[in-house]
Automatic annotation (TrEMBL):
One of its GO terms (biological process) is 'de novo' IMP biosynthetic process. This is Uncharacterized protein. One of its GO terms (cellular component) is cytosol. GO terms for molecular function: IMP cyclohydrolase activity; phosphoribosylaminoimidazolecarboxamide formyltransferase activity. Pfam families: AICARFT_IMPCHas. SMART domains: AICARFT_IMPCHas (SM00798).
């Protein structure tokens, strides 16, 4: 559940088909009110069918909340998982061994913005941009996430190129994508006749991607595109830089 108000279950509208039989995860305690919302929430597809979930996972459950969830379904698996701690190693199996690296445990407070555009994004736009950037790290590359109001509207993942991932994410987001934030887990190699142009035409408001320089000159690859303003982001945990591309029509 991605909303600050966890009783607001609009997140399920983004993928109503996938939500049925899905997993609901929380980073707060599931109390009585929240458990009732989970139990009684109706499918967005017809507004009548009670939603079916395979798993509910949270760091903690109140006694009453746990009792309510246990009465929802005999097959519902209720898991308790402690919150991730910062500074742990992340292990990934690779051919012939294991890859050990720092865990990607950034929080919005860890992401700082150094604006360099003439037109400054609004505070709420930067807040949504941070949220989108945190979401995209969980999506399989090539990864694109479109978010608005602390809710992920669409994602494109696992495609052979970034443009196809963008088109999938835009299709999922629909009209809600206008003015939304877009996050990419890698740079866009071209501006026109590619993902940047299609994002602009679709009304995306803010785009986040890795910072990329050209020919060592310090120029941004799409720095000469006159339809966009730019803002640079410093990710204090990593050595690379990320770019916020604010897609305002001049």
């Amino acid at each position: 559940m991605s909303y600050n108000n966890y009783l607001d279950a609009d997140a399920a509208w983004n993928y109503p088909v996938s939500a049925f039989g899905g997993i609901v995860a929380f980073n707060i305690e599931v109390d009585e009110d929240l458990a009732k919302e989970i139990r009684e929430f109706r499918s967005p597809t017809d507004g009548e069918t009670r939603m079916f979930y395979e798993i509910v996972v949270a760091p903690k459950y109140s006694k009453k909340g746990l009792e309510i969830l246990r009465g929802k379904s005999k097959t519902l698996r209720i898991l308790e998982a402690s919150k991730n701690k910062k500074g742990k190693l992340s292990l990934r199996q690779v051919g012939g061994g294991w890859l050990a690296q720092d865990s990607d445990d950034l929080t919005p407070e860890d992401i700082g913005f150094n604006l360099v555009s003439k037109k400054t994004p609004q505070e709420n736009e930067l807040s949504v941009a941070k949220f989108a950037w945190l979401c995209v790290k969980h999506v399989k590359s090539n990864a694109i996430v479109i978010a608005k109001g602390k809710c992920m509207l669409g994602m494109g993942s696992g495609q052979p190129n970034r443009l196809e991932s963008l088109r999938i994410a835009l299709r999922k987001a629909g009209d809600e994508g206008k003015g939304a934030a877009l996050a990419s887990d890698a740079f866009f190699p071209f501006a026109w006749k590619d993902a940047v142009e299609e994002a602009c035409e679709s009304g995306i408001g803010v785009s986040i991607r890795h910072w990329r320089r050209r020919d060592g000159s310090g120029q941004v690859i799409v720095g000469e595109v006159q339809h966009f303003d730019f803002a640079k982001v410093s990710d204090f945990r990593r050595t690379y830089e990320i770019q916020i591309l604010t897609l305002f029509t001049l």
